[in-house]
Amino acid sequence: MSDNYLHLVSSDPLWQPDETAAEAAVGIARGLFPQAEHIGVAYKEGVTFFDAGANTESVHCAFCGGDLEDWWGDAMGQAAASDFSNLTIVTPCCGKSTSLNDLSYGWPAAFGTCALTVVNPGATSLGADQLRRIELAIGSPLKAIWQHL
Ligand SMILES: [Zn+2]
């Protein structure tokens, strides 16, 4: 049996909520996903890449739409060597300075040191208004990463 995860990751890779905000956000998520197997906030020791798992499809430049899939593996390897402490890159297609966190991933992906994770949410979507409620509780804009393993 495969598992599905919904990771909610701050748009700022280094941001972490305090315990009270994290608990409030988990409480709201429990209301939105009553069938979920588990909901919790996990703090990571360093920056972690949350991707779509088996859903991962493609990587494109957010500026010109260039296909970055071949280049991206090397760029990720270099960033991983420094524990993702520096995500700054220059796009090989059009020479723009940006971040690995701001590329166009076919399925959303994000770098973060913390995630609110819903295990087997029993749903496959999260409405913008629902996401907004969790963002207000936790205190940061969030990216929703649907991961299928
Ligand atoms: Zn480009």
Could you explain how this protein is built, in words?
It is built from 3 helices and 8 strands. The chain is of the alpha+beta class and 149 residues long. The chain has 2 domains: 1-57 and 111-149, Alpha-Beta Plaits (2-Layer Sandwich), CATH 3.30.70; 58-106, no CATH class. It has a 4-stranded antiparallel β-sheet with strand order 2-7-1-8. The chain has a two-stranded antiparallel sheet with strand order 3-6. Helix 1 runs antiparallel to helix 3. Zinc ion binds next to loops.
The assigned CATH architecture of the largest domain is: 2-Layer Sandwich
Model regions low in confidence, pLDDT < 50 over at least 5 residues: none
What overall form do the CA principal axes indicate?
globular
Counting DSSP H or I runs of 4 or more residues, the number of helices is 3
Walk across the major sheet and give the strand order.
Answer: 2-7-1-8
Mean of the pLDDT scores? 94
Q: What's the CATH class label of the largest domain?
A: Alpha Beta
Structural class, from secondary structure content? alpha+beta
CATH topology of the largest domain: Alpha-Beta Plaits
What separation lies between the terminal Cα atoms? Answer: 9 Å
> Would you count the extended β strands for me?
8
Domain module tally: 2
Largest sheet: 4 strands, antiparallel
Entry summary:
It contains three helices and eight strands, in the order E-H-E-E-H-E-E-E-E-H-E. The chain is an alpha+beta fold and 149 residues long. The strands form three sheets. It has a four-stranded antiparallel sheet with strand order 2-7-1-8.
